[in-house]
């Protein structure tokens, strides 16, 4: 049995070009950089070489991270200047496709993990990096997040991401609340916060990816976690099944604990609500911690896995390799860019990720004094289940992941039931997934 994805890469790129031409007039920049990355300049008279890097990570904390990266990189490669050119996350795919097709993409490209990166590699835009010094530090599973259909390696894994529940320790202490051990206990905790005049959960459904992220955290406790994902990949489970519908219902059950007018809130609003103590909890990726602390460095954040749906079960966090960095095939500075990619395999770089993005690194030997990051890393090692939408459902045109996001948005607007959401998602799966005899 195997996956069979329809080959529609060029069609996607053409459509993306059309969307890029039409999508620049909404005026919604969200405070993030949206300039189109351009190719690097050749060596300047002083011998400096500029290497451009593009990513969807446009938060101020990420830009500060690249300043630290520059300092550390220049200890071994003083001639290289990093020009970091982030694009707003919701506009990144369209902007990247446009720049790749017009020959103006950055030297180093942050690839979406799994199917997203594979599509860019298969379209012929990337330089294979097999044999790059340092790649042997990563596990086969980590490297698989950035390989093409040809089996070649196209990206250096960036960081290990996970979704879990973050909570405000001060609010919990003030209201005599303990970390819940079951899903029912989690709902009771939310009820107590609500009764105390505290919005239980920071959340907004304006940006679709936030919904698939939350479902990626909550869902496994109801559809059966890793076992269900394996059955799905084997063609033995569908997404309109009772267990998957229960995972959508669990998302609906959280609605009474969201902020007022959550339908119009984006991730920046979500961060602010939690950082300023207006909510007691947030179900989110650990990668948001740096941005949250950037808004309120004094915030005392605790973490716990999504509690088990059944007493005696194990809590879970959803994990995945969150992107990788690839070499643009048309880069004019491949030698310098490869040096940057090689640096991204070093322990020094891994420690930068730990210290400044509060994210576990896939690079062995890294360490941090940050108790919260260490706790998240420990949970990722003992309570992990795959982020289903990213690792297995990011196929199709539109992808099943985006269909899930759009359907969940419709559910929160009262337009779809959980059963109808599941039906829509399965309908999407049927367009690209097929079960075949070995």
Characterise the protein shown here.
It is a single chain. The protein is α/β, with parallel strands linked by helices. The N terminus is likely disordered. Helix 2 links the parallel strand 1 and strand 2. The protein contains 19 helices and twelve strands. The chain is globular. The strands form two sheets. Strands 1, 2, 3, 4, 5 and 11 form a six-stranded mixed sheet that branches. Helix 2 packs antiparallel against helix 15 and helix 8 packs across helix 18.
DSSP summary, beta strand count: 12
DSSP helix count? Answer: 19
Helix % is: 40-55%
Distance between the termini: 5 Å
Multimer state? single chain
SS strand fraction: 5-15%
Please, what is the average pLDDT? Answer: 88
Radius of gyration: 21 Å
Poorly predicted segments? 1-41
The structure class reads: alpha/beta
Taken from the alpha-carbon principal axes, the silhouette is globular
Secondary-structure map with pairings?
Layout: H1 9-22, E1 49-55, H2 60-73, E2 80-86, H3 89-102, E3 108-111, H4 115-122, E4 126-127, H5 140-143, E5 156-157, E6 160-168, H6 169-174, H7 183-195, E7 199-201, H8 208-218, H9 220-223, H10 225-233, H11 242-253, H12 267-275, E8 279-285, H13 289-295, E9 301-304, E10 317-321, E11 324-328, H14 334-343, H15 347-357, H16 371-382, E12 384-386, H17 388-391, H18 400-412, H19 418-429
Parallel strand pairs: 1-2, 1-3, 7-8, 10-12
Antiparallel strand pairs: 3-11, 4-11, 5-11, 6-8, 6-9, 6-10
Helix pairs in contact: 1-3, 2-15, 8-18, 11-19, 12-13, 18-19
